[in-house]
Specification:
It is built from 14 helices and 17 strands. The protein has helices at residues 122-131, 144-147, 172-179, 181-195, 209-219, 239-247, 267-279, 309-315, 356-359, 372-376, 383-391, 395-400, 411-415, 422-442; strands spanning 22-24, 30-34, 44-45, 52-53, 58-61, 70-71, 76-85, 91-99, 158-162, 199-205, 225-230, 262-266, 285-291, 299-304, 323-328, 335-336, 350-355. The chain has a six-stranded mixed β-sheet with strand order 1-14-13-17-15-16. The chain has a four-stranded antiparallel β-sheet with strand order 2-8-7-4, with no helix packed on it. A hairpin with a 5-residue loop joins strand 7 and strand 8 (91-99). Helix 4 (181-195) packs across helix 7 and helix 11 packs across helix 14 (422-442). The longest helix has 21 residues, at 422-442. The chain starts with 21 loop residues before the first strand and ends with a helix.
Length: 443
């Protein structure tokens, strides 16, 4: 079975919410919507205190190149514009909305009717994706329209759709494939048309046989979309690993997928593109998995952006007594939540509630020189070497050791018998290398 060629680990899958159908989460009474929810330059606010807004109304405009529009997920009144803390505690500019009903902007199709005929051409699709504020829903939140504005001289051969969902516990993409497969396939057709490619590969891990079968049957109605089962191995869904598994092409160090003729998007992004192009619907909601071994009601929820995290947890039975950590995302690459009053954003894919025992770190001891971190690294790096350089603050040496190639999958940390904080040190290294590079650029 197809897979990537270096490293990888096999954490316990814990897909505990697989059988939970998507539920529509009730609207909150008050919401907090961050002005910028994407990777890149900040958006420019276009509403003010006292304004009445409708669902889908533009509230922050993308006026720079790598930037994305933000739309109101609610109808109601803007009560204030102020700084608000995100789930890490970092304060960002946000729009506070008192929710008053659920009135959508005219022209947005909220019906369940499936629209198959794609009327827009490539340039119009890119404009529509930008207008609707679509960002990558695999976690990075990179503005999607930018990926399809190919650099001069570059040509795409393949569209790669990441439907792997290799992170333990997460099931939102799985439920999307089960319940919104047709819309997702049309979204893939739209992206194919945008790139002017004949072939799209949809990679799905083999631990989702029913999703593979369902997609395979439906894809017979769409020429040039191949559903490819992949070996269950983490991090199968990492961009460079997925490209290699599906095409045997290797993205060079420091380069983007287009260098090897590929463009990669998450399956959730494809469905959001369908909504944008066929339904004129901005990205104002997403599917969120609320899960954990001790959670009373594990659910997959369709949640509006700006919903308080605490309200989602309360809806599913509240915090278990022995909760030790709450994570946004999965246990391998997700980040701990420090403030439950923070709102959801476009890329909030999961809330994972872990017990104190499950979330506790191993006691850190001296490196055993076992080489396990090197063996499992999917990028072929030497994590312990980079970690030791980082501990000695030798940032230029960490750069020479290719620390920037780290995809932060956490495989090294997961497998280390000495409990060394390898992933933390890799992230610190990358931050300092980024600073070094910015300083060099200013000279």
């Amino acid at each position: 079975m197809k897979t990537f060629n270096k490293g990888g680990v096999h954490p316990q899958e814990n897909k505990l919410s697989n059988d939970s159908a998507i539920e529509v989460f009730p609207l909150p009474k008050q919401a907090v919507v961050f002005v910028s929810q994407h990777l890149g330059a900040p958006s420019t606010l276009v509403v003010q205190k006292g304004d009445k807004v409708k669902v889908g109304q533009l509230i922050a405009k993308a006026e720079q190149f790598i930037c994305a529009n933000t739309h109101s997920p609610y109808s109601g009144t803007v009560t204030k514009i102020d700084l608000a803390a995100d789930f890490t505690g970092y304060k960002k500019l946000a729009v506070y909305i008192d929710v008053e009903g659920d009135e959508w902007m005219e022209g947005i199709d909220t019906s369940n009717d499936i629209i198959r005929d794609i009327k827009l051409d490539s340039a119009q699709i890119i404009d529509k994706i930008k207008e609707m504020g679509i960002v990558g829903l695999g976690g990075a939140a990179f503005p999607t329209h930018i990926k399809y504005m190919l650099p001069q001289g570059k040509k795409a051969d393949y569209l790669i759709i990441n439907a792997v969902e290799c992170e333990p516990y997460l099931t939102s993409d799985y439920r999307l494939m089960k319940e919104k497969a047709e819309e997702s396939l049309i979204g893939i057709e739209i992206l194919k048309k945008t790139l002017n490619v004949d072939k799209a590969f949809v990679g799905i891990e083999a631990n989702k046989p029913d999703a593979i079968e369902h997609f395979t049957q439906l894809s017979k109605n769409y020429k040039g979309i191949d559903i490819v089962p992949l070996k269950t191995k983490y991090p199968q869904g990492a961009e460079k690993q997925l490209i290699y598994a599906l095409t045997k092409r290797q993205v060079p160090s420091g380069k983007l997928p287009i260098e090897v003729g590929c463009v990669v998007n998450n399956i959730g992004t494809a469905q959001a593109v369908y909504n944008a192009v066929q339904k004129n619907m901005p990205l104002v909601q997403n599917i969120l998995t609320l899960t954990g071994k001790n959670v009373k009601q594990r659910k997959n929820l369709l949640v509006r952006v700006g919903t308080p995290l605490q309200s989602v947890i309360d809806y599913c039975g509240g915090l278990p007594e022995d909760t030790g950590k709450i994570i946004s995302g999965g246990p391998m690459m997700g980040k701990a939540i420090s403030d439950l009053s923070a709102p959801t954003v476009k890329t909030t894919s999961a809330l994972l509630l872990m017990s104190k025992k499950e979330s506790s770190r191993k006691e850190e001891t001296n490196c055993l020189r076992c080489g396990k971190c090197v063996k499992v690294c999917p990028m072929g790096l030497e994590p312990i070497k980079i970690a030791q350089l980082a501990e000695n603050r030798l940032w230029e040496d960490t750069e020479k050791a290719y620390a920037m190639d780290c995809i932060e999958c956490g495989s090294c940390h997961f497998t280390c018998p000495a409990g060394r904080p390898l992933l933390d040190l890799m992230r610190v290294s990358k931050n300092h290398i980024g600073d070094l590079r910015r300083q060099r650029a200013q000279r």
